[in-house]
Amino acid sequence: MAETLDIALVQTRTPATAAAGLVHVEPLIRRAAAEGAKLIATPEGTNLLEQRRALRDAALADEAADPAVAGLKGLAAELGVWLAVGSVLVRSGVEGDARAANRSLLLDPTGAVAARYDKLHVFDVDLPGGETYRESAAVRPGEAAVVADTPWGRLGLSICYDVRFPHLYRGLAKAGASLIAVPAAFTRPTGEAHWETLLRARAIETGAFVLAPAQGGTHEDGRRTWGRSLVVDPWGQVIARADHDEPCLVHAKLDMSAVERARGAVPSLLHDRDFDLPTP
Hints:
Blueprint: E1 4-11, H1 18-34, E2 39-41, H2 53-59, H3 67-79, E3 82-91, E4 100-107, E5 113-118, E6 124-126, E7 132-134, H4 135-138, E8 146-150, E9 153-157, H5 166-174, E10 177-181, H6 188-206, E11 209-212, E12 217-218, E13 224-225, E14 230-232, E15 238-241, E16 248-255, H7 257-265
Parallel strand pairs: 1-2, 2-3, 9-10, 10-11
Antiparallel strand pairs: 1-16, 3-4, 4-5, 6-7, 8-9, 11-14, 12-13, 14-15
């Protein structure tokens, strides 16, 4: 297993259609590979971001027919890199359910899909500033957590709102994940308040590297997302970051032996105990 890993996080401001999404992200992925990244991670909604239901439904395709998915597979193969596509919004394929799947795809250097993960937790909220989100109306939640093998260790997959559910990350770590992806399109109010704190907590709790590529800025559908993509090491230290919302790359070189050191110093993954919950 390789001891070091050159990664790049791709921060984007994805447009509202998959064709435009591919045009937006492709130059950043090409640059990341040219600059030496072997694992390249993109944000949630890499293919498209559109919250207006009628326009979103018109833009959705099956995974196999989505032009961004096809283009990203081709890029992984052409560039010979692992590509952790934070998520694509595609038709769920479930009969009788018109909602989309919010799906992470891990592509290997041949362009094949090494793993799929559908977002488990969907975000429904009314924010004090007047913004309202009803992800459950548009997205069908997934059913299972996913880890996948890479040359650098096992990669646990998660998406955005999942980061608020620490038991998921503990499960990924116990399944052997030494890298955990948290691609996101965080809202600005919650991003400013919670983004970095949550990511550092998940790294500390799991003793894993956390890779968090994000959307940033004001999008075509009017949503405003918090960029600040970052990489957290297994001790909870931010080792690379963007300090803005603009499309960019965040590079880091990971010493994979840091995972064993962190888990050896604080072996909490070995110390679970059963306990009775208080009565509500």
